[in-house]
Amino acid sequence: MASSGYAQVAVLLLAVQLVCLGAADADQETGTVIPAESRPCVDCHAFEFMQRALQDLKKTAFNLDARTETLVLRAERRALCDCMPTNSLR
């Protein structure tokens, strides 16, 4: 009978500890929450990401365009040089 009283007290103490730990964790979580007014919205982050991606695509397109133009000029020069005799180039 006495051991059942000790078991009840132990279970009660364990329940109180769990409740106290849960309350302490809840206090810590609410202390770290940033108010909604001061944090950017998800749409703003998505918009900024898409802007950066678009800028990267524009740079890539410009680089490809410049590279293509260089390759076309090089091919035209080769074709021109292949057509002309070597002594007329001097």
UniProtKB/TrEMBL annotation:
Organism: Parambassis ranga
Family per record: Belongs to the NICOL family.
Main location: secreted
Keywords, ordered alphabetically: RNA-binding, Secreted, Signal
Source domain of life: Eukaryota
Source species taxonomy: Eukaryota, Metazoa, Chordata, Craniata, Vertebrata
Keyword Signal: yes
Signal peptide stretch: 1-26
Listed PANTHER family: NEUROPEPTIDE-LIKE PROTEIN C4ORF48
Pfam families assigned to the protein according to its UniProt record, in alphabetical order: Neuropep_like (PF15161)
Entry GO CC: extracellular region
Name of the featured protein: NELL2-interacting cell ontogeny regulator 1
Localization (cell): Secreted
GO molecular function, one term: RNA binding
InterPro entries linked: NICOL (IPR028147)
